[in-house]
Amino acid sequence: MKALKINIIAIAVLAIAFQLTNVAWYSLAGERWVELAGLKNVADIAAATSPMAYISSILNAALFCFMLAWLFIKIRVENAVQGIIYAVSFYGCFVFFESLTKDLFHLRPMMLTLINEGVNFINYTLAGAVLGAWRKYEA
């Protein structure tokens, strides 16, 4: 039986895909997200955003996908469906409820949490599917 390896190409593709889903998601959320977040407007946000935010986003996506790929090898995820189940389970346990709790204590609107976490749910689902299906084996 060939041993599974971490698929660096899949991780790179996912890190880029996460950036695209983030742009699409927040474009759809638009003014509602700006209003709930207590920001002025989309143009001001774009002008004030530091390059470090984009670097952090790409680094976060790559590190998350690397760790998920490593976990999938350890727990022997065999296909996209298993990958989605595990990734969404991790998301619910380690991300969503943590963010929800923090936002509730910070008195942020629940809709803001749902908007912010909606894109994470999509990204975790995508990562689970891709890393579960796009497997790499040692030669």
Give an overview in words.
The protein is mostly helical and 139 residues long. The protein has one domain (4-137). 80% of the residues lie in helices and 3% in strands. It has helices at residues 8-37, 42-48, 51-74, 80-105, 110-133, and strands at 4-5, 136-137. Strands 1-2 form a two-stranded antiparallel ribbon. Helix 1 crosses helix 3 (51-74), helix 3 (51-74) crosses helix 5 (110-133) and helix 4 packs antiparallel against helix 5 (110-133). The chain is elongated, with a radius of gyration of 17 Å. The mean pLDDT is 93.
SSE inventory with pairings:
Elements: E1 4-5, H1 8-37, H2 42-48, H3 51-74, H4 80-105, H5 110-133, E2 136-137
Antiparallel strand pairs: 1-2
Helix pairs in contact: 1-3, 1-5, 3-5, 4-5
Strand order of the largest sheet: 1-2
Q: Kindly provide the radius of gyration, computed on alpha-carbon positions and rounded to a whole number of angstroms.
A: 17 Å
The overall strand count is 2
Number of domains: 1
Task: Quickly count the helices.
Answer: 5
Unreliable residue stretches: none
Assembly state? single chain
The rough form would be described as elongated
Distance between the termini: 11 Å
Helix percentage: over 70%
Largest sheet: 2 strands, antiparallel
Mean pLDDT: 93
Order of helices and strands: EHHHHHE
- The portion of residues forming beta strands comes to under 5%
The secondary structure category is: mainly alpha
